[in-house]
Each structure stands twice: as C-alpha cells, then as structure tokens.
Write a structure and sequence with these properties.
heterodimer; A: 9 helices
Chain lengths: 134, 20
C-alpha cells in the first residue's frame, strides 16, 4: 500500500484527511506564521457540520461570532487578508443580523483553500520538514 | 473569552479526521 506521506502529495484533501498529515502541515504553517489559515479552514468545516436546530441556535451564533472575531474582523490578520472584501462584508452582515446559516463561511473557506492549494501546500511539499519526514 | 476559545477549538477538532 502507498505510505501516507506519499498520499499527502497527491492532493490537499489527501493531506487534510490524515491526522499525521495535518499535524505536520500545521507545524510547517506555524513556522511560516500562518497556522491560522488551517485553523480557519477546519473551523469553517466544523461550523457547517452543526445542524441548525432549536437546541444549538445560541451555540451557532456564539461560534459564528467567535470565528468572525478571531479570523475576519482584524484586516491585518493572515486569514482576513486573503478573503475578498465582498465576502467579508457578507459574513459581517450575517453576524450583525444574526442570520446564521451553515453555509455562511463557505465562500471564505473556498478562498482560503485556493490560497493554500496555490501557495502554502506546494511550499510544504518542498519544505525540509516534509522531506525529512519522508 | 476562554469559553469562546474553547468553542472554537471544539469546532476545529470536530472537523478533523479521527486517528486511523
């Protein structure tokens, strides 16, 4: 069978589907001061998984606000800088009007994912940290 | 603030694959 570390090089999704791959990628991103990109990506996926229902409305609102505050509000943050202004204002509107939809971070997540795929993921595959691991 | 961070951390973990 193909060793996991070779599968990590096939696609970003293969890497993010493996706990060891995530850990190594996160260590690399931390060195580059951009681990927030990965945390934000997973936060968006986790948020989408929370089914809207009466018992967790408060939690979803609190979480949407927390994601907005931590990653999007500060325009100088690594995540915020990679998200289009229109996408940011859409999310801001959702939070202010308390229109909490499971898909409200989808566009932002897509933008961050494209940036990872074009930039940090290829760099990771060429990094010492990955090469040493293999 | 702590509980916000906990909530975020829990959300991030919930999206990660389980250790194989």
């Amino acid at each position: 069978p193909t060793p996991p570390y070779l599968r990590w090089a096939e696609s970003l999704h293969s890497l993010l589907d493996d706990q060891d791959g995530i850990n190594l990628f996160r260590t690399f991103l931390k060195q580059e001061n951009c681990a927030d990109l990965l945390d934000f990506w997973f936060a968006c996926s986790g948020f989408r998984k929370l089914e809207p229902c009466d018992s967790n409305e408060e939690k979803r609102l609190k979480l949407a606000k927390a994601i907005y505050k931590k990653y999007i509000l500060d325009n100088n943050g690594i995540v915020s800088r990679q998200i289009k202004p229109a996408t940011k204002s859409f999310i801001k509107d959702c939070v202010i009007k308390q229109l909490i939809d499971p898909a409200m971070f989808d566009q932002a997540q897509t933008e961050i994912q494209s940036m990872i795929e074009e930039n940090t993921y290829p760099l990771f595959l060429k990094s010492d940290i990955y090469l040493e691991y293999t | 603030i702590d509980s916000e961070d906990d909530l975020l951390q829990e959300c991030i973990s919930s999206a990660m694959p389980k250790k194989k």
